[in-house]
């Protein structure tokens, strides 16, 4: 028997991620968001206290128990946020062409200078380097470099106020992706049983490797691509990651706007090729922070991400601080459902299917999709210890549901971000169990969950001997009987 019976057959393949915040962190609101269609909740450690995040995690788990299906949690750590210091008057006005200095002096800033408390930037910058301030609203060009300061010329002016962010798009900074704060947040999140760690401001593969050593398999790592430097090492970064997020906020600051859609498509293609779930995030339904309906352009943006093959789409401020969080989730779900019903979408999933790799597990996943399509199976049933075999079958974008029968609850929760997978917990199967017994159990679960009826066909993927991760090597077809 499953610890979490399916309440209804999955009506869409693309998953929905929602960020919790003041507008949505109560247990009742989390329940309403889950009912509206949220599969994975994001807890943003850039804001709030540990006590608040702990309460949010506890509320999600309470809703999970009440609803009777796995719900994933993404703990998004802040990363090395770079900021200028403070001004004597709280703000200054910078004019294009004027000289402005960024230095290490802790004195309050004025119209001529301000402290930049990040010596790494001063050491790494070169003459000609561009510095972007306040999410790119202002920009400075470096004209001279010194050991303790950068002399710059204002390119795009405006109001610069206390502690605004600094982006350096054309320089690899010698700073770790995890700060002291991040390490404390990461350990807190892992102690509370989160399923994904969102890794911010990754520049190099070494940043992901460092996080892996700290996480030690207790959660999956979702690398956020938001630095141009990450794009230069994309494939290697993806190989070290369990999942990836196209974080278009900071990426859109450091890249020209016209490049962001192309890089989004490139990241999705690369992630799917490597079998890594990919989430598209930031400003998807931004106007719904204060409006009950999205713009047509926003609806098109969500649809484009679904068409491109994203595993999940994410809401940020729309659910964290917005006035219409439930409505935002509902419209995102309806957009995904509408796209997935389109024949053009179905054709695009088939034509973009990557070629299989030369492994047994890969061949089984590829064959499962082919067999399911040929015989009209209602579902592919994937037995999985870690969740990875279900992820691998998801890469094939089969025409039917993927029923992930997980050996444990953490594995089932991790599948909440994976395209087309409905996860159930069935427990581990012993090494002495036969394939016939496992097939019979899969049929019973599918029938009990309302996924399969008499005379329906199921394709079942499993590993023999049972109870050993990474051994998916067997494919069976079963017909449901009375």
Features:
about 475 residues, alpha/beta, TIM Barrel, M1 Pyruvate Kinase, Domain 3, Pyruvate Kinase, Chain: A, domain 1, eight-stranded parallel barrel, six-stranded mixed β-sheet
- Computed over alpha carbons, the radius of gyration is 24 Å
Structural class: alpha/beta
Main sheet: strands, sense, barrel: 8 strands, parallel, barrel
Overall outline: elongated
Q: How large is the count of helical segments? A: 17
**Distance N to C terminus:** 18 Å
CATH architecture of the largest domain: Alpha-Beta Barrel
CATH class of the largest domain: Alpha Beta
Secondary structure elements and their pairing?
Layout: E1 15-19, H1 27-36, E2 40-44, H2 50-67, E3 72-76, E4 91-94, E5 99-103, E6 113-115, H3 119-124, E7 130-133, E8 138-145, E9 149-156, E10 158-161, E11 166-167, H4 180-191, E12 196-199, H5 205-215, E13 220-225, H6 228-232, H7 234-240, E14 243-247, H8 248-254, H9 260-274, E15 278-281, H10 296-308, E16 312-315, H11 317-320, H12 325-340, H13 343-351, H14 360-375, E17 379-384, H15 388-394, E18 401-406, H16 409-414, E19 421-425, H17 435-448, E20 457-463, E21 472-479
Parallel strand pairs: 1-2, 1-16, 2-3, 3-12, 5-6, 12-13, 13-14, 14-15, 15-16, 17-18, 17-20, 18-19
Antiparallel strand pairs: 4-10, 5-9, 7-8, 7-11, 8-9, 20-21
Helix pairs in contact: 1-2, 1-12, 5-7, 7-9, 10-12, 14-15
What does this structure look like?
This protein is α/β, with parallel strands linked by helices and 482 residues long. It folds into 3 domains: 15-79 and 177-341, Alpha-Beta Barrel (TIM Barrel), CATH 3.20.20.60; 91-167, PK beta-barrel domain-like (M1 Pyruvate Kinase, Domain 3, Beta Barrel); 360-479, 3-Layer(aba) Sandwich (Pyruvate Kinase, Chain: A, domain 1). 37% of the residues lie in helices and 22% in strands. The chain contains 17 helices and 21 strands. It has helices at residues 27-36, 50-67, 119-124, 180-191, 205-215, 228-232, 234-240, 248-254, 260-274, 296-308, 317-320, 325-340, 343-351, 360-375, 388-394, 409-414, 435-448, and strands spanning 15-19, 40-44, 72-76, 91-94, 99-103, 113-115, 130-133, 138-145, 149-156, 158-161, 166-167, 196-199, 220-225, 243-247, 278-281, 312-315, 379-384, 401-406, 421-425, 457-463, 472-479. An 8-stranded parallel beta barrel has the order 1-2-3-12-13-14-15-16, surrounded by 7 helices. β15, α10 and β16 form a beta-alpha-beta unit. The protein is elongated. The two termini are 18 Å apart. The model is unreliable at 1-9 (pLDDT under 50).
